[in-house]
Amino acid sequence: QHRSLLSALYAGCAELGEQPSMAAAAARLQAIGAFTVPQSATALAALREGRPSEAEGLLKQVLDEAATALPAWELRMASAARARALEELMSWGNLQSALHDCAGSPVGAGTASGGAGARVLRAALGQAVTSPGAPPPAVLEEVQRPDSARSAVLLAAHAVVRERLDDARRLVLEGYDAFASAWRRVPLLATRAQHELLSALPLLRTIEVFLERPGGVPAVKPLSARNDMFPAWIDSALSKIAIARVCRDRQAEATAYAEIGRRCREAGNLQTAAEMMKACLKSRVQQDHQFYDDVFELKLRQRENSCAKLCQVVALEASKNKEPQDAFRYRLILAKVARTGWERSELDHGPAWDALKTARGLAEDCGAVERSLAYARLAEFADAVLRRAEQAGAKVPTGQEELVASLVTSVLQVLQIGDSTLTAQSDAFRQAHERLPRVFELLSTFPSTSPQFVEHAASTPVWPFLRWLPQALVHLPRVPVLLGPLLELARQFPQALVWPLQLSSHPDVVGDRAHVFKPLWAELERCQAPVQLALTFTKALDCLTHPDTRLSGELRLFRDALLRDDRAAAKQKWRGLWQKVAAPDASVAGALHTEFGLRVQAALRDVALKHGLAVASGELADGDLSSHKREAWQKTFAALDQLIRLGTRHGPGRKAPLQAFSPFLSRFDARGGAAAGQLEIPGQYRGLERPEPRGHARVLRFAPELLVMASKQRPKRLTVLGSDEREHWFLVKGGEDVRLDERVEQLFGAVNGLLAADGVVGLRVRTYAVIPLLPDLGILEWVRDTKPLKAVVLESAKAKDLTELDGHKQRIEWARRFGQPVTTRYANIFGVSRADVVVAFRRCAGALPASATLRAFLWRVALGPEALWHLRQRFAASLAAVSAASYILGIGDRHLDNYLLCLRSAEVVPIDFGYSFGIGALLPVPELVPFRLTGFLLSALQPLAGPQAHGAFRDGLTTTLARCRERRDFLLDACALFIREPLLDWTAESRRRGVKDIEFLPRRRLHLVSERLGGRHPASLLMEELADTPCPWVRELSRGPVLEGIVAGLEDEDGERRRLYQRGTALSSAEQADCLIRQATDPNVLGRAWEGWAPEI
Questions:
Q1: Secondary structure (DSSP) of 513-549
Q2: Burial 580-599 (b: 16+ CB within 10 A, else e)
Q3: Which residues have CB under 8 Å from 829's CB, separation 6+?
Q4: Cis peptide before 507, with omega less than 30 degrees from 0?
Q5: Which ranges carry the PI3K/PI4K catalytic domain (predicted)?
Q6: What are the beta bridge partners of residue 72?
Q7: Kindly report the CA angle at 1054 between 1050 and 1059, in degrees rounded to 5?
Q8: CATH number at residue 863
Q9: Which tens digits make up the pLDDT trace of 654-668?
Q10: How many helices, marked H, and strands, marked E, lie in the chain?
């Protein structure tokens, strides 16, 4: 039964081009040992991976040698797969023979039905077009009426080939009728089937236009390599060739061959691509740069000639073209060939650099698209050469300053030319926009290039700097030339600058460099931006933090300064503690803070009387900070800690009056003021397109109640009533450095930009706005229509807490058998054998009720089968992107409360990134999984996914890793902010370790990010991270083979993880994805995870 269902599902997905599900079905068939002949699985994999020639050879061997031994379902799969392989190879004669062997006749009894019927017609048309001397097939006589629009296109093209134009007109009309009939039967959400139907309409219209005016070849709507299946490309090319033959337009025929050849090359089918380019060469009557570009791209892929030899051929052809447009294009081809030679170490960088400089000069006589493209290519290559030199620890042999200057000016030139709807120009602009952080770094390293930056920055639009505003402000003290663009930003978008500038100017962030920001504050004042209102607003938002939480944070900072014997810092921190907690500003702080402040003052007066410390005011004397007063300070800390433990009212999970926290916010009303003096609602400047501040929503009032959240710092949900007549919800977090969240979200946005070109539905990380206001205060956009995964579990299980679930209860009981202190307990658990851990873990996981799975939840919320399919695919793609991005950034602590599930789209929204950049491996119970992929999440992907998450999740994970690895330099440039402006926690950690260089820890953690992007084995990286652990039992365990065996899966039965781990070389993206999935789902790893993480769910 499984074999029949899976093979049928594979066939249906193959007709619709649903590659992830095809892969999953084939993997499941292989996993249950269904294939009679091992070559069947190998051939199917080769076909999916773009190797049709290899697949066809294997399948022919299977069908020739083992056809009689194959069961019917496997015979059907092999026959259909071989037909697809022959179709991709465009081997029409062999395809006709294969279809004849399957069906007994080429077409059947008078009708062309389904995908197989279209394939028969396509084979006949391909044979007729590519073999003009052969007798025309009799399909027009055999097929009375097409049953689909696709069949009508192919039959009409047959009629055109035979110059039976009346039959062609009739078939076009019948094709429209067939489309209308089929469209009514397609379910509303069956988007793949809808696209397949719609893709036939442009071809029908093309033939119709030709029949109306038979003199020329009409233009055809271009196809998409991303969305259109390969048969659609073949049909388009064959129809164009048929029309061109009738019109005797050899150039149009050559163009059609070139288009299909280009598509074959992009799919990796180099054999067919070469044959199509040969056909193009025979048909074309005039040469152009596009043909040469296609030919040399193919030759570079084939690697049959050296790049030096290819450069000579291109250079000779380029010398024949004198028109600027043509000469420019040929120089770009030459540069591409020379750069490939440089990348393969066949040539140095000189030939490519010279070709690009020549192309840049030629582009000045061309249009905006050519100029934008020339500068973009120049910047890209200059960056590549510089990075190779940096990685090798050497200087560029010649012209390093020239490379840096060219990169800086080229990026600014592209930004000057601007974006447009033209793809080439848009891509160049996007790449230049992404390269701005690299420009900042180079300006810091090579200050001699600053004059070139100043010269071109004056005429460059400043809005692209908005996306990288934190990076620009961090570099400003070292790169003074950035002040010009930042001043212009202050003039054009003042409220975009206020919050980042306030944060960067804070003493804990900028230190003694605050003077560099004074011109920006002055410019904001001159532009009459509501600066004072924004600063007061920040103070009021700070008052939404519970006073005991504020006291805890301020006391920790003071204690650290006191222990370092930094008296100046200690005085400053004590002054801040007094102003924020003991004597808060009554104009912005509510009764909750003033009452707590009086209690703090009373406690400090009591300390002053008992221990002789002058702590009853905001100023401390040097004598009070001397070392012989340490015992008195310990008693002071104990008294204040007692106040913190007593806390304040308004606990988590309750609504609280805004008035009690901040009367300023509760009384705030801007409905009568001018728009220019109103605060814009934060989070409206994303930096991805030019903003229009006049259309931004502004803060009018605040809802009278707050919702106090249940997490440690008790953040509050604040409702802002905007000028757009909408409620805007924000989470106000005090006592935490949300700069980490902001930077992680910025990196997630960068990953989304890399994935946008793939166009896979749902393959993105759902992001939200994070606005840091102070080092310990920020606001986060509230993500609506979502629910934490923990709430989904509890709702599905009809429970109030996880401890009510049998599986979780059993897990806790099992873990606590090994000791009460956590470190002792898990030191013992890591000593348990693999077999015992796996049995115990599977018993706990199996106790979870079937109704409490994510699969069951999605079944309940879906409107029907098609809706469920879409929710599952969207969930799988979203989870894949989140998992890949989280692994690259080392984000840990992925418990059930740190994932939100969108109730509309089933997308996953990751939140709370406090344990990022590998911190999870340093916990008292180290996290050994790269991301969360437990049974609860896997249930939504079943039954196709199997234990290794095949299908949409694995494909999405592989794609995301591949795109990030292709643009690793861009991501590392964005991460450089952590080195230039380390987080307060990272700085404190460096001090605890006794490391004087505060950049050491950020560089160490970003090195691990670079290693992940380089394809290093995940287990090898984790072992390196575990070596830094402060936990003695983990350090001791990591010295022996036990921990390595657990992490690397050295005891696994299939041995694949062991083989890849011991190979010691970089993994491909697919291998990396497989290793991550195996590590994340390994019961031997999950069974040793901290029980509070709930690995069994």
A1: -GGGGHHHHHHHHHTT--HHHHHHHHHHHHTTS-HHH
A2: bbbbbeeebbbebbeebbeb
A3: 815, 818, 837, 1088
A4: no
A5: 702-1031
A6: none
A7: 55
A8: 1.10.1070.11
A9: 889 999 999 999 999
A10: 55, 10
Alpha carbon of 683 to those of 747, 913, 964, 1023: distances in Å?
16, 19, 26, 39
Tell me the angle at which helices 423-434 and 739-755 cross, rounded to the nearest 10 degrees. 150
Residue 332: band (very low, low, confident or very high) from pLDDT cuts 50, 70, 90 = very high
The verdict on 506 and 367 lying in the same domain is yes
Rounded distance between C-alpha atoms, residue 877 and residue 900, angstroms: 15
CA angle 124, 128, 129 (to 5 degrees): 120
Indicate whether 420 pLDDT > 70: no
Which pTM was predicted?
A: 0.90
In sequence order, the 6+-apart residues with CB closer than 8 A to the CB of 624 are 613, 614, 615
What are the structure tokens assigned to 780, written together? 């986060």
Whether 844 is in a domain gets the answer no
Integer CA distances (angstroms), 7 to 28, 72, 220, in order: 10, 10, 36
The per-residue pLDDT of the chain, averaged, comes to 88
- Per the DSSP assignment, residues forming a β-bridge with 779 are 732, 771
Q: Are residues 329 and 377 in the same domain?
A: yes
Alpha-carbon distance values, 431 to 359, 378, 459, 757, 967 (Å): 19, 12, 19, 13, 11
Domain limits at 473? 321-530
With beta carbons less than 8 A apart as the criterion, state whether 878 and 764 touch: yes
Neighbours of 702 (CB within 10 A): 20
For the CA atoms of the chain, what is the radius of gyration?
Answer: 33
Q: Going by C-beta distance under 8 Å and a sequence separation of 6 or more, which residues neighbour residue 47? A: 55, 81, 84, 85, 88
Answer yes or no: is 1015 within a domain. Answer: yes
Which residues does residue 901 pair with via DSSP β-bridges, in sequence order? 787, 908
Closest CA to 336 of 367, 298, 363, 364: 298
- Residue 112, pLDDT score: 37
